[in-house]
Amino acid sequence: xxxxxxxxxxxxxxxxxxxxxxxxxxxxxxxxxxxxxxxxxxxxxxxxxxxxxxxxxxxxxxxxxxxxxxxxxxxxxxxxxxxxxxxxxxxxxxxxxxxxxxxxxxxxxxxxxxxxxxxxxxxxxxxxxxxxxxxxxxxxxxxxxxxxxxxxxxxxxxxxxxxxxxxxxxxxxxxxxxxxxxxxxxxxxxxxxxxxxxxxxxxxxxxxxxxxxxxxxxxxxxxxxxx
Length: 227
What we know:
The protein is built from four helices and four strands, in the order ααββββαα. It is mostly helical. Among the domains are: 41-108; 125-181, no CATH class. A hairpin with a 4-residue loop joins strand 1 and strand 2 (138-144).
Protein backbone atom coordinates (compact mmCIF):
# COMPACT_ATOMS: atom_id res chain seq x y z
CA UNK A 1 0.00 0.00 0.00
CA UNK A 2 1.14 3.48 -0.70
CA UNK A 3 1.23 6.25 1.86
CA UNK A 4 -1.20 8.32 -0.14
CA UNK A 5 -4.06 6.01 0.76
CA UNK A 6 -3.17 5.84 4.51
CA UNK A 7 -5.64 7.68 6.81
CA UNK A 8 -4.50 8.83 10.26
CA UNK A 9 -6.91 7.58 12.92
CA UNK A 10 -8.72 10.07 15.16
CA UNK A 11 -7.60 10.37 18.78
CA UNK A 12 -9.92 8.70 21.16
CA UNK A 13 -11.79 10.93 23.60
CA UNK A 14 -11.33 10.14 27.22
CA UNK A 15 -14.45 9.21 29.05
CA UNK A 16 -13.05 10.60 32.34
CA UNK A 17 -13.88 14.18 33.41
CA UNK A 18 -11.09 16.77 33.09
CA UNK A 19 -8.86 17.12 36.09
CA UNK A 20 -9.22 20.35 38.06
CA UNK A 21 -6.43 22.95 37.81
CA UNK A 22 -4.21 23.31 40.80
CA UNK A 23 -4.59 26.69 42.53
CA UNK A 24 -1.85 28.46 44.36
CA UNK A 25 -2.25 28.40 48.05
CA UNK A 26 -2.56 31.84 49.66
CA UNK A 27 -2.41 32.80 53.30
CA UNK A 28 -5.84 32.80 54.78
CA UNK A 29 -7.11 36.14 56.13
CA UNK A 30 -8.30 35.58 59.60
CA UNK A 31 -10.32 38.83 60.02
CA UNK A 32 -11.16 41.99 58.05
CA UNK A 33 -11.55 45.08 60.28
CA UNK A 34 -13.30 48.26 59.11
CA UNK A 35 -12.71 51.64 60.83
CA UNK A 36 -16.07 53.39 61.00
CA UNK A 37 -14.58 56.54 62.59
CA UNK A 38 -12.23 57.13 59.66
CA UNK A 39 -15.06 56.50 57.23
CA UNK A 40 -17.26 59.04 59.02
CA UNK A 41 -14.39 61.52 59.15
CA UNK A 42 -13.81 61.17 55.42
CA UNK A 43 -17.48 61.50 54.52
CA UNK A 44 -18.08 64.53 56.76
CA UNK A 45 -14.72 66.28 56.24
CA UNK A 46 -15.05 67.68 52.72
CA UNK A 47 -15.65 71.25 53.93
CA UNK A 48 -12.90 70.99 56.50
CA UNK A 49 -10.36 69.84 53.93
CA UNK A 50 -11.50 72.58 51.54
CA UNK A 51 -10.97 75.26 54.23
CA UNK A 52 -7.51 73.85 54.98
CA UNK A 53 -6.57 74.03 51.30
CA UNK A 54 -7.78 77.64 51.15
CA UNK A 55 -5.74 78.54 54.24
CA UNK A 56 -2.61 76.96 52.80
CA UNK A 57 -3.09 78.83 49.52
CA UNK A 58 -3.68 82.10 51.40
CA UNK A 59 -0.54 81.60 53.48
CA UNK A 60 1.50 80.94 50.34
CA UNK A 61 0.09 84.05 48.66
CA UNK A 62 0.91 86.19 51.71
CA UNK A 63 4.44 84.79 51.77
CA UNK A 64 4.92 85.61 48.09
CA UNK A 65 3.48 89.11 48.56
CA UNK A 66 5.82 89.73 51.50
CA UNK A 67 8.82 88.61 49.47
CA UNK A 68 7.76 90.94 46.65
CA UNK A 69 7.40 93.87 49.07
CA UNK A 70 10.84 93.19 50.52
CA UNK A 71 12.31 93.09 47.02
CA UNK A 72 10.58 96.34 46.03
CA UNK A 73 11.79 98.10 49.18
CA UNK A 74 15.31 96.87 48.53
CA UNK A 75 15.19 98.23 45.00
CA UNK A 76 13.75 101.52 46.29
CA UNK A 77 16.57 101.86 48.83
CA UNK A 78 19.15 101.18 46.17
CA UNK A 79 17.59 103.78 43.88
CA UNK A 80 17.49 106.38 46.65
CA UNK A 81 21.08 105.62 47.59
CA UNK A 82 22.12 106.11 43.98
CA UNK A 83 20.16 109.36 43.74
CA UNK A 84 21.77 110.58 46.96
CA UNK A 85 25.24 109.80 45.64
CA UNK A 86 24.50 111.66 42.42
CA UNK A 87 23.14 114.63 44.37
CA UNK A 88 26.22 114.75 46.61
CA UNK A 89 28.48 114.55 43.57
CA UNK A 90 26.61 117.43 41.91
CA UNK A 91 26.88 119.57 45.06
CA UNK A 92 30.60 118.82 45.35
CA UNK A 93 31.07 119.89 41.74
CA UNK A 94 29.17 123.16 42.35
CA UNK A 95 31.21 123.89 45.47
CA UNK A 96 34.43 123.20 43.63
CA UNK A 97 33.42 125.61 40.86
CA UNK A 98 32.43 128.31 43.36
CA UNK A 99 35.70 128.03 45.31
CA UNK A 100 37.98 128.26 42.28
CA UNK A 101 37.49 131.99 41.42
CA UNK A 102 37.93 132.98 45.06
CA UNK A 103 41.21 131.10 45.30
CA UNK A 104 42.44 132.61 42.03
CA UNK A 105 41.62 136.08 43.33
CA UNK A 106 43.56 135.51 46.55
CA UNK A 107 46.56 134.10 44.71
CA UNK A 108 46.70 137.03 42.31
CA UNK A 109 46.85 139.46 45.26
CA UNK A 110 44.34 141.89 43.79
CA UNK A 111 42.48 144.03 46.28
CA UNK A 112 38.84 144.34 45.49
CA UNK A 113 36.47 146.90 46.89
CA UNK A 114 34.31 145.81 49.79
CA UNK A 115 30.64 146.37 49.15
CA UNK A 116 29.58 145.71 52.70
CA UNK A 117 27.54 142.89 54.12
CA UNK A 118 25.02 141.68 51.65
CA UNK A 119 21.56 141.03 52.89
CA UNK A 120 20.70 137.41 52.68
CA UNK A 121 17.45 136.39 51.13
CA UNK A 122 14.84 135.32 53.68
CA UNK A 123 14.85 131.63 54.22
CA UNK A 124 11.83 129.73 53.07
CA UNK A 125 9.84 128.17 55.89
CA UNK A 126 10.59 124.53 56.45
CA UNK A 127 7.45 122.55 55.94
CA UNK A 128 7.65 119.20 54.20
CA UNK A 129 7.10 115.50 54.73
CA UNK A 130 9.54 112.64 54.36
CA UNK A 131 8.67 108.97 53.99
CA UNK A 132 10.93 106.29 55.43
CA UNK A 133 10.34 102.69 54.38
CA UNK A 134 11.91 99.70 56.07
CA UNK A 135 11.41 96.01 55.47
CA UNK A 136 8.55 95.78 57.97
CA UNK A 137 7.73 99.42 58.74
CA UNK A 138 6.43 102.49 56.93
CA UNK A 139 6.84 105.88 58.63
CA UNK A 140 5.93 109.41 57.56
CA UNK A 141 7.84 112.28 59.23
CA UNK A 142 6.55 115.87 59.03
CA UNK A 143 9.18 118.62 59.39
CA UNK A 144 7.97 122.11 60.35
CA UNK A 145 9.65 125.36 61.36
CA UNK A 146 9.27 125.94 65.11
CA UNK A 147 9.73 129.08 67.21
CA UNK A 148 10.60 129.25 70.90
CA UNK A 149 8.99 131.59 73.43
CA UNK A 150 8.13 131.70 77.12
CA UNK A 151 4.93 129.81 76.43
CA UNK A 152 6.81 126.99 74.72
CA UNK A 153 7.20 125.82 71.13
CA UNK A 154 4.97 127.14 68.38
CA UNK A 155 4.90 126.76 64.61
CA UNK A 156 4.76 129.48 61.98
CA UNK A 157 1.16 128.59 61.15
CA UNK A 158 0.17 129.02 64.80
CA UNK A 159 1.92 132.41 64.91
CA UNK A 160 -0.01 133.55 61.86
CA UNK A 161 -3.28 132.34 63.37
CA UNK A 162 -2.56 134.12 66.68
CA UNK A 163 -1.65 137.33 64.87
CA UNK A 164 -4.80 137.16 62.75
CA UNK A 165 -6.94 136.45 65.80
CA UNK A 166 -5.35 139.38 67.67
CA UNK A 167 -6.10 141.71 64.77
CA UNK A 168 -9.72 140.52 64.69
CA UNK A 169 -10.12 141.08 68.43
CA UNK A 170 -8.59 144.56 68.21
CA UNK A 171 -10.87 145.47 65.31
CA UNK A 172 -13.93 144.16 67.18
CA UNK A 173 -12.99 146.10 70.33
CA UNK A 174 -12.47 149.32 68.35
CA UNK A 175 -15.82 148.84 66.62
CA UNK A 176 -17.60 148.22 69.93
CA UNK A 177 -16.01 151.31 71.50
CA UNK A 178 -17.04 153.42 68.52
CA UNK A 179 -20.62 152.16 68.69
CA UNK A 180 -20.76 152.75 72.46
CA UNK A 181 -19.53 156.30 71.99
CA UNK A 182 -22.05 156.99 69.25
CA UNK A 183 -25.00 155.35 71.06
CA UNK A 184 -24.61 155.66 74.84
CA UNK A 185 -26.59 153.14 76.82
CA UNK A 186 -29.66 154.18 78.78
CA UNK A 187 -29.17 154.17 82.54
CA UNK A 188 -31.90 152.07 84.14
CA UNK A 189 -32.73 152.54 87.84
CA UNK A 190 -31.40 149.89 90.09
CA UNK A 191 -33.91 147.51 91.57
CA UNK A 192 -33.98 147.05 95.30
CA UNK A 193 -32.95 143.66 96.41
CA UNK A 194 -35.68 141.60 98.04
CA UNK A 195 -35.02 140.30 101.49
CA UNK A 196 -34.61 136.57 101.49
CA UNK A 197 -37.48 134.59 102.97
CA UNK A 198 -36.76 133.21 106.42
CA UNK A 199 -38.82 131.14 108.83
CA UNK A 200 -39.44 132.69 112.26
CA UNK A 201 -38.04 131.09 115.33
CA UNK A 202 -40.17 129.83 118.20
CA UNK A 203 -39.43 132.92 120.29
CA UNK A 204 -40.28 135.27 117.43
CA UNK A 205 -43.59 133.49 116.86
CA UNK A 206 -44.43 133.75 120.58
CA UNK A 207 -43.68 137.49 120.61
CA UNK A 208 -45.73 137.98 117.46
CA UNK A 209 -48.75 136.20 118.95
CA UNK A 210 -48.51 138.32 122.13
CA UNK A 211 -48.43 141.53 120.07
CA UNK A 212 -51.41 140.35 118.04
CA UNK A 213 -53.41 139.60 121.21
CA UNK A 214 -52.64 143.00 122.74
CA UNK A 215 -53.64 144.79 119.54
CA UNK A 216 -56.85 142.79 119.40
CA UNK A 217 -57.66 143.70 123.03
CA UNK A 218 -57.04 147.37 122.35
CA UNK A 219 -59.27 147.26 119.31
CA UNK A 220 -62.04 145.49 121.28
CA UNK A 221 -61.86 147.98 124.17
CA UNK A 222 -61.98 150.84 121.69
CA UNK A 223 -65.11 149.42 120.10
CA UNK A 224 -66.76 149.01 123.54
CA UNK A 225 -65.98 152.60 124.48
CA UNK A 226 -67.60 153.83 121.29
CA UNK A 227 -70.72 151.80 122.04
